[in-house]
Every structure is written in structure tokens, then in C-alpha cells.
Design brief:
359 residues, heme binding, 9-stranded antiparallel sheet
Amino acid sequence: MVSTNQTRTAPIPYSDDVEQIQPHEAEHIQRCIDAMHRTNEMTFDQHRHGYRATHAKSHGILRGTLEIHDDLPPELAQGLFATPGTHPVVVRIATETGQLDDDRAANARGFSLKVLDVPGEKMHPRTPDLPVQDLLFNTLPVLPPGTAKKFMELAEIRERYFHDLEGMDEAVGERDDAEELTAFGRLANIHPLAHAYYTQAAFRYGDYVAKIAVYPGTAEQEALSERSVTDADPDHILRDLLASWATDRETVFDVRVQLRTNAETMPVEDAAVYWPEDESPYRSVATVRLPPQDAYSPARRVFADDRLAFRPWNGLPAHRPLGSVNRLRRRAYEVMGQQRFTLNATTGTEMTSVDELPF
């Protein structure tokens, strides 16, 4: 996919009516949170430890910088990306589900980015001065359960068949959207630093609306895609691959933005709809650089898995999460994060400095 600094069509300006509350949405959100809460309790009973409701199994936690380009055209110089400069960042790479899944099984992987030293008032009423912008990415460009209703239905299936994986597969397979919901299992199972990662859902992008992605930033890193995971690998192979690379090599990701240019083909309320890149390509706005480091030290793992939180609603109003799924996330991340802290008898931390991340 080629990054370009020219769009074919002018981006559609943001307006508050870009969002439309869906029928029975509040009920669907509450039912989804309740199902995830009960599922997390069952996970705790299995492991005697509290994990995230999604992206439970981490493969690496890294620190570095975000370098915002200084030559951006006006439509890309928005929000966080309006001012050129460098910000400290923390990155957590993990697998999508709330279980400690075997790395040899194909699945979606996640890339959580916490940008620090971000000035300005934030969206969260409890921490309006927190100098943070969180951005969450996934290896699939779309989110298959793209509405709060579908996310609720999938969460209830995962709860109902928690102890019966075959039954879970059958229940999903009977749905009309089974092809979409099983897409994670058909993704290439490769080195985690060779993936592109996407926000999937839409976000406000200053005066516009966009999706954001990160792509491997060097040819050497792209070549890691040739390393497929096989049945001969250990079940923690993704951690090993990431750690082996990060020990003595820089990791680079190119941050790109896809502006919304067509209201018909680029809906906001259904995150399962792919936004055509031939109508609006992803365009480079910044670079993430992660220097050589120990990406999975015991202290770092415990800090990131047990105390640290990444939330889509941690950040600037200029990057307000949009759509049904993001409105679900607003409540779900708060509730599920607090459950994780309670189960592990710890308190969450709101990072204000990259130096809080242990080595």
C-alpha cells in the first residue's frame, strides 16, 4: 500500500451529526459489559489472575518516540499532529482475545500506543489535564462485530461457551455474519513487528473524520513477514520473536491517516465496513521509533499487564472516538479496567512520564 500526500477527493468536514445513536444502544452496551465482566471472572477462576477483557496476552512492551512530520498539508496537520515535534511513547503488543491463547493459532494482534507530553484539555472528566493521547490498533482494517449490538452478541457467545470452544465455533458459524466474525482466524500468523495495525473504527481528526494505521517503517522490518508461525514453534513464540528483534535493533512504524471522503462508502456507525483505499489512501503523518531494549522484562510485563491502561477515550477532543463501538468502549474500558485492578489487588496508573515504565 503506497502512502501519498495527495487525496483524490476533499475530506468531509466533521460535524456532530456524523454520529447517530442506534436503537436500544444503551441496553446493548450494558449487556455487553455484563457479559465481559462475567467472562473475566471465569478467566480469573482459571488463572487466579485478572486479565484484560480483550488483548489479554502481551508479547512485548516498548518505549520510544513519536516524531510528527513538519511538512504536513493542512488537512493532515490536525489535533495531535498539528504541531511538529517529538513525544515519548509506550507501545504494548498483544493478542486480541481475553484468553491466554496459544500463539500458534492465527488471530488478530493488537498495537496499543500511549503518546505522552500531549498538552491541552482531554476528554476524560476525571483526568482532564492528563498529558496523554491513547490510540489502539488491530491487525484487521475493520472490526467484524462493527456495532455495539453485534459486539454484545459476540460477548454473550463467548461467555456462554467459555468452557466449550467447539460449541462457541458452532454458535458463531450459524450466524449470518459468520464469515466476517471468523476473519481473525484467517489472518497471516507472522512476526508481530511485520504487521500493519489499524484503528478499525472512525475517529474525529480535528476538522475531519479519519481512521489511523501504523505500518512497518523499514524494509528489514517488512521482511519479517516471511517468518510464519508453525506448529513446531512454542506457544509463546510471538514474545520470543519480538524480544529477539528488539534486543539489538530499532523498531520503526510509519503512522498514516485515512481521511473520510465519501459518506456512502465510509460509514461511521458500522466499523465492520472497509473504507476503500482507492478513494482515500492512508497518508503518512508521523514515525514511531522504538530503540533497542528488553521488551519483556518481568517488571515491565507486570506494570503493563496489571497496572497500565490504554483507553480510546484518553485523549484530545480533536480525536474523539466515533460510532457505536467506540461509544461502547467508553464505558467498557473503564469498567473492565477497574475489574482487572480489583482482581489483582492493585491500583491502575495514569502515566504522565515514560520514565514510569520499568526497564
